[in-house]
Design brief:
Length: 248
């Protein structure tokens, strides 16, 4: 059994997929990210460096098969078993010359589609539950906002379009406190940053924003219809840490 080790990036993943298929080991290879790799006493390890040309060729093939988004969303699930299921999923797509999604009885297809569903559900939740606070202003007088989130999956790239579309005229930083990197928007362009000075600073206090959120929350509530169990169903406890309206 041969293990293909890549650097943990999506480009690295695509490069590893290229190498696996080039080596004709798509039925037997194990794929793992570098930070999760460990020596296997009875197998070989092949370290695959990111390769733009190889990654682009794989991405082009995935688009032709109409599975590019599915593969990317499932990869964001950030699970080694799912990443290996993706190799089998891609193989099935090549064999069928199109999406194998109808083969839900296949373990790889089931794993991939389950991962995609969970990732997109997490995206939807954080589109609803993210709360920004005002952190200050730029030298040009543009307000800067910051929010922290703790997503179960690596969904920050999938939140870019949503928040830049809604806060396009304001600078903001959206920080993934689990993976320690941030989405930074300066009103013109965005980038993903892992700089400690951006990610490690404590979330600023904004009394005005907190008061507005709590007032809104109180005004829309109907006291005699209060149902904590139903509320917890729609807003699970794990999302409330940074939701202003739930803070004391």
């Amino acid at each position: 059994m041969t293990t293909y080790v890549y650097d943990g990036t999506y480009e690295g993943f695509l490069s590893a997929v290229f190498r696996i298929f080039a080596d004709k080991r798509q039925h037997s290879a194990i794929l793992t990210a570098k930070d999760k790799a460990f020596g296997l006493p009875f197998g070989d390890e092949i370290c695959v460096e990111p390769n733009d040309e190889h990654a682009d060729r794989v991405e082009a093939r995935l688009k032709a098969l109409r599975i590019s988004k599915t593969v990317y969303y499932a990869w964001l699930y950030d699970d080694e078993d799912v990443h290996n299921a993706l190799v089998a999923y891609i193989r099935l797509a090549i064999e069928q010359n199109g999406k194998p999604d109808g083969m839900r009885y296949d373990p790889a297809v089931h794993a991939v589609l389950t991962a995609v569903r969970r990732v997109l559900k997490e995206v939807e939740r954080f589109q609803q539950f993210t709360r920004f606070v005002k952190a200050g202003q730029t030298g040009q007088g543009v307000s800067v906002y910051v929010a922290d989130i703790e997503p179960a999956y690596d969904i920050l790239p999938l939140l870019i379009g949503f928040f830049t579309g809604r806060l396009g005229d304001q600078c903001f930083i959206l920080r993934d406190t689990v993976r320690k990197y941030s989405l930074v928007w300066d009103t013109n362009d965005w980038h993903l940053s892992a700089l400690p000075e951006i990610n490690d600073a404590p979330l600023p206090k904004d009394g005005e924003f907190e008061a507005l959120w709590k007032k809104y929350f109180e005004n829309i509530a109907i006291p005699w219809r209060k149902n904590p169990k139903l509320q917890q169903h729609f807003v699970p406890l794990r999302y409330r840490r940074y939701m202003t309206e739930f803070q004391d």
